[in-house]
Amino acid sequence: FNDKFERIFRLQEKGFKDDAIDFAKLAFSNLIGSIGYFYGSAQVQSVYTKSPVPYWKAPLYTAVPSRSFFPRGFLWDEGFHGLLISTWDLDIELDIMSHWFDLINSEGWIPREMILGSEALKKVPEEFVTQISSNANPPTFFLTLDYILNTRDAELLDRHYKLLTELYPRLQAWFEWFNTTQVGDLPGTYRWRGRDSLTNRELNPKTLTSGLDDYPRASHPNVDERHVDLRCWIAMAAGVMA
C-alpha cells in the first residue's frame, strides 16, 4: 500500500512532511475501505404512484460517505469519490460507475440515495427514506469521467472501449433528464426541485437536491428561482458529453 500510494500520489516527491502523508494515507484508506456491496430495493415516489413503491431489486457496488453513520450510496458523493478511486484503480471505479448507471430508469433518473438493506435503513430518518423521482442530485460522475478522459484516455480506449459505448446512451439519457425536468420557467434557466415552500421551521429552506444543503437561496421557494450552480453543472456535463 505504501509503495503504491507514493508511486501514484508522489507526496514525498512533492515535499510533504511525514505527518501530512500519514494523514493522507489514513483519509484515503478510509475511502477505499468504505467501498462495499449492497443489494435490495429502494423506496421511490413518482407522479405515477399515489404512495411510495419499491424500486426494482438491484446490487450496488459503491463507496459510502461514512461506514458508521451513512452506510449507503449517495449519488453526488460518488462522483467525488471516483476522482481518487479512479486514480488508484480504474477498474474498480468503472465497476462502481456501471452499478450506478444500472439504476437509471426509463426516464433517465437515478435515485439520490440508495438505501439498500436493513442496516442502511436503520440509519435513515423516516422522512428521508423515500426517493422522489422529480428530484435531482449534482451529476458529479461527469467530473469523474472528465478526469479519466484527461488522465487515462489511452487505457480507457484500449481496455474499456466496449464499456464506454454501453455507458454513453445512459449518460445521454441522464443528461436529457436534467435538461428537461430541472429547467426554469425562462429559457436557459435551471432550478433544483425539492425545496419545501410550506415549512415554518427554517428561514432558508434547505436544497438537499443541490448537495449544498444549506447554501443561502430564496427564503420563499418558488418557480421564479434561478439556480446558477445547476446551470454550471449542466454546462460542464454538456462539455464532457461533447
Automatic annotation (TrEMBL):
Q: What is its EC number?
A: 3.2.1.106
Q: Which InterPro entries match?
A: 6-hairpin_glycosidase_sf (IPR008928), 6hp_glycosidase-like_sf (IPR012341), Glyco_hydro_63_C (IPR031335), Glycoside_hydrolase_63 (IPR004888)
Membrane topology note:
Single-pass type II membrane protein
**Highest taxon listed in the record's lineage:** Eukaryota
User: What Pfam families would the database entry show?
Assistant: Glyco_hydro_63 (PF03200)
Q: In the UniProt record, does the keyword Endoplasmic reticulum occur?
A: yes
Q: Which UniProt keywords apply?
A: Endoplasmic reticulum, Glycoprotein, Glycosidase, Hydrolase, Membrane, Signal-anchor, Transmembrane, Transmembrane helix
Q: Quote a single Gene Ontology cellular component term.
A: endoplasmic reticulum membrane
Subcellular location per UniProt equals: Endoplasmic reticulum membrane
GO-annotated molecular function:
Glc3Man9GlcNAc2 oligosaccharide glucosidase activity
GO biological process per UniProt: oligosaccharide metabolic process; protein N-linked glycosylation
Classification via PANTHER family: MANNOSYL-OLIGOSACCHARIDE GLUCOSIDASE (PTHR10412)
Similarity comment: family membership: Belongs to the glycosyl hydrolase 63 family.
Question: What is this protein identified as?
Answer: mannosyl-oligosaccharide glucosidase
